[in-house]
Amino acid sequence: MADKKAVITCALTGVLTDPQQHHVPVTPEQMAVEAKRARDAGASIVHVHMRSQDEGMGRLPSWDPVVAKNICDAIKAAAPDLILNLTTGVVGPDIAGPVACLEAVKPEMAALNAGSLNYLKLRSNNDWAWPPLLFDNPVEKVEAFEKVMKQHGIVPECECFDTGILRSVMMFAKRQMVPNPPHVSLVMGVESGMPNKASWLPLLIEEMLPGTHWQVIGIGRQEVWALHRRCAELGGDLRTGLEDTFYLPDGSKATSNGQLIDAMAKLAVETGRQVATPAEARKLLGLRS
Predict the structure, then answer these.
(1) CA-CA distance, 119 to 249, in Å (whole number)?
(2) 8 Å CB contact between 190 and 163
(3) Coil vs helix vs strand at 110
(4) What domains does the chain contain, in order, with CATH numbers?
């Protein structure tokens, strides 16, 4: 797989990460600066979460289409050739907010959460870290999102938190609910989902349809880098950013997305891969130009 160029995505900011405690960008200006740093370091795609521009509550997630457009316009002004990949993840059946953001921005790609997960985490004393949460993504919700994406020429990136969701995506592709071959993100490291184990990757690849575009979203600390290395060796695309981890391969804490993307680009080269430019990424992923 050394001849296949690696497409690198930068996940710019967390969903709930408090900007007063961590170096996550939240304003359009901050998002633009971080996107440019990521682009300069080798990223072709930026995965964008919108955050409330209210100073209170650590800036919670926002589904305001004006906020979404302001952020994405700022990113495009700073790095015009970057590919935008917009979040759509929302709990519950009401998808009006994410749809409004998709329609305002019309990104080339968008995340599509492709199945439900009991989102759980334990503290060291075995108490729940938060009340058990069902991240519900039934088939009718997936279909509703996919219909909007298809209408606007947006390629869905199917996020898979467990093996059953991955296998379901292959069924969706066979039914033409999503593109065939599909685009898949293997979300690994969520405590109630797939673990950060590189040994799982060959088994997961076996479940994919021929030609599936895939990458790993490694959630965690320094341990995610062994997972990314194996992903690169097996021909997958690559993703990192302050949404996924704060830690560089040497265990030190990153203060910008640029540092994380620089480390990922170096990892790709170490495994014999070249890093795709945004123009090359568009061709490899079948995106509109």
Answers:
(1) 27
(2) no
(3) strand
(4) 8-285 (3.20.20.70)
